[in-house]
Amino acid sequence: MNEVVVDIKNVKKSFRTKKAVNDLSLSVSRGKITGILGPNGAGKSTMIRMLMGIMIPDSGEVIYHLDSHEKIPRSRIGFLPEERGLYKNEKVMDVILYLADLKDYDKEKAKQRALDLLVRFGLEGHEKSKIEELSKGMAQKVQFIGAIIHEPEFLILDEPFSGLDPVSQDVFKEEIQALADNGTAILLSAHQMNIVERLCDEIFLIHKGEKVVYDTVNNIKEQFSNYKCVLVNTDTTYPFNEDERVERVEVEGNQTTIHFHQDVHPLSYIRSFPDDLHWDELHIDRKSLHDIFVSIAKGEGS
Ligand SMILES: Nc1ncnc2c1ncn2[C@@H]1O[C@H](COP(=O)(O)OP(=O)(O)OP(=O)(O)O)[C@@H](O)[C@H]1O
Question: Which residues line ligand 1 (CB under 6 A)?
Answer without folding.
Answer: 15, 18, 20, 38, 40-46
